[in-house]
């Protein structure tokens, strides 16, 4: 590993550097006449993904120029294949592309059931919908809360789709994990490391959305918080970052999607709804996301967008979502991938009367 040191690094700083290097099993040599470059060569131990951060965090280290020999867990090693995340029939990565769809917020059980049936018929393999809504204003609708979790559980069983729903508060993680197949950590919570630790512990798949002002590096570090706690089931979601122009709600960062597909083995999806903010722009952004290499899409769908309690302007009608799903299937076929479709629910095995189940 190569470090660039501050020109004002003192003899005491260099002593600290030598100690940290020794503790982590590296031999230190100072390079150059100004001794502003430090080379660390591993002498002992297996290396640790924390090596890089241990040096980066020292006040007099300006930059780590070369990564340590122990990559962080999100990193794709040379030649490493895509990780594949499977949830029910859905699969993301390794040539599998899946669609997640549903309302922004849960509003009533009947409406959720109707929407779930429609998105499944159109090709979605995961149902989305927020019981707890992160809203910019405290005066906006904050979601129906716990009651919505019961609706999700019943609708999921009835329609045969696993569900993804957001959890905002570490205190709600256990209750949400009881019904959710995938826990969503939203853009506003991406850097909440206490929440990331708590969701990781459930062992459930985690849909991690990029913060509106988060760099790609910060996004990957947030994923690392989950991976470092032994939960490798992370799905990254690009949903647009804050731009200077309000024509679209957010600026969909397709470069980040293409980059992430190379830099990490984790599957990556695109949320065109929160990027567009307007329903007529959702399909083109969705197609662009898939063309950039995304392993799936998460799309907001509502049967009556005008009546939606949140994000109605960007919601697709079920028919428009069905058209998008057809386009998605055709598009991913072009690069040798395939769109995963819902499987017919298997009939429940019948047990003879009185038999122990
Ligand atoms: C959502 O998915 O409904 C949501 C709130 O998204 P984001 O966290 O990306 O704003
Ligand atoms: Mn929304």
Key descriptive features of the protein:
357 residues; alpha/beta; four-stranded antiparallel β-sheet; 15 strands; disordered C terminus; binds phosphoenolpyruvate; binds manganese (II) ion
In short:
The chain is α/β, with parallel strands linked by helices and 357 residues long. Helices cover 33% and strands 18% of the residues.
Structure description:
By secondary structure, the chain is α/β, with parallel strands linked by helices. Helix content is 33%, strand content 18%. It has eleven helices and 15 strands. The protein has helices at 11-23, 51-56, 109-122, 146-159, 173-179, 193-201, 216-227, 254-263, 272-276, 282-291, 318-334, and strands at 2-5, 26-31, 37-42, 61-64, 85-87, 90-92, 96-102, 126-128, 163-166, 182-185, 205-209, 234-238, 268-270, 296-300, 338-339. The strands form three sheets. Strands 7, 8, 9, 10, 11, 12, 13, 14 and 15 form a nine-stranded parallel sheet that branches. Strands 2-3-1-4 form a four-stranded antiparallel sheet. Strand 9 (163-166), helix 5 (173-179) and strand 10 form a beta-alpha-beta unit. Helix 3 (109-122) packs parallel to helix 11, helix 6 crosses helix 7 and helix 10 packs parallel to helix 11 (318-334). The longest helix has 17 residues, at 318-334. It starts with a strand and ends in an 18-residue tail after the last strand. The structure holds phosphoenolpyruvate and manganese (II) ion. The site of manganese (II) ion has 5 residues, from loops. Phosphoenolpyruvate binds at residues 104, 130, 134, 186-188, 209, 239, 274.
